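User: I'm new to structure prediction. If I give you an amino acid sequence, what do you actually give back? Let's try with this one:
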Amino acid sequence: MADNTVYVNPLTTRYASKDMQKAFSDEKRFRLWRQLWIALAESEKELGLNITDEQIEDLKKYADDINYDVAAAYEKQTRHDVMAHVKAYGDQATSAKGIIHLGATSCFVDCNSELIMIYDALGLILIKLVNVMEKLTKFAMKYKDMPTLGFTHLQPAQLTTVGKRATLWLQDLAMDYANLIQLIAEFRLRGVKGTTGTQASFMDLFDGDEEKVKELEKKVIEKMGFNRAYGVTGQTYPRKFDYNVLSVLSQIAQSCYKFSNDIRILQNMKEIEEPFEKTQIGSSAMAYKRNPMRCERMGSLCRYVISLPVNTAITAGTQWFERTLDDSANRRIVIAQAFLALDGVLNLYMNVADGLVVYDKVIAKHIAAELPFMATENIIMECVKAGGDRQQLHERIRVLSQEAGRQVKEEGRDNCLLEMIQADDMFKAVHGRLGEIVDASKFIGRAPSQVVEYIDREIKPILAANKDCLGRSGVVEV
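Assistant: Good question. You get back a string of structure tokens that encode the predicted 3D arrangement of the chain. For your 478 residues, that looks like this:
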């Protein structure tokens, strides 16, 4: 039963998935510590140190059987989490007690385990990102031909299509995908570097044999599933890397934020809505309301993620010489929470993109209110082709447009510009053809083709490369 008298983090109780929570759990962290200690002991044995098979097997026997209570008791005594777990592990694997953590510093397990946790979490973000892209791709293709008002400065501008607008959201995510893939491709562990990064303790263990020390690091990182380590470090891996990670997360959040804001505006206009369930309540007071709560929540969490890279920048810039400990408590919070928050955002994005509701009649109504103004140049040109005077036509249509606009704004009427043109003899050349001239599909340029070309060229290769992880859906818990 929950203890309702203490603060709990809403990222874990309301927003982030269980998979992402497990990625930063103590269970994963401390199991990685033991895996790293096993990898270190095995590699040291393989390179000639006096470590027995019995000791290795003893370590493996208790690799996943972590005695948390014992470790917690040791930490109260030592005020040192790594040494507490070394002692607790040694109480179980008694034959190996003397060789656990041999030659290593705390950051051997701290940094390498944290990097592996970040790597795995990036993989979870990647899966959700491409699933969002798949859903937006389907949406863009479905609505590639549907005209809609374009907006600049949040004022009606030339027409676009509903699908073309969706490709703008897609393109933002495609840029994020490229940055994420590059980050993952260049990933590396801290390696086996010793207290200040010089590997001095391992040089002592191997009697000054540099080749064996280099081979030790290679073996350990390969046993942990990686093939590269930082060439040089202080006591920790470079804290600038945390900034790189959170910058990529921030960029994804920026893209999600824009999408959520666009949908919120479109929902206000009653053109497109996010999913709304039958029993969902929009307002405790106003029963009729259908608030865009999913997109509002996306924006709220995005704002948090976007704010976090500056924190890691400060940490990176204030690491004195080989290392100071003022990064530790901060990093326990900021890195995990950035991932948990963005995970919640992408869950919402998948959910919203999968269930967007398009109201084509409202979209057509909004077009009809604005398109006559946009079509005036086309009407003038058609009349000029029939022998009309361009300047006289321009002045007359300007006067009619101003009057039509006045009636819309001051009297709340529908746009009657086309009716006024139809009744004016100066525009006799287009009488009976106005419906054809102001056909919305003639004002969308290459938008449908652009959707198809962009998706074929840029998006389909991404989806094909990640086909095995597609088909996921986003679950909104509350």
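You can read the tokens as a compact description of the fold. Here is one thing that stands out. The beta strands are 147-152, 155-161, 272-273, 357-358.
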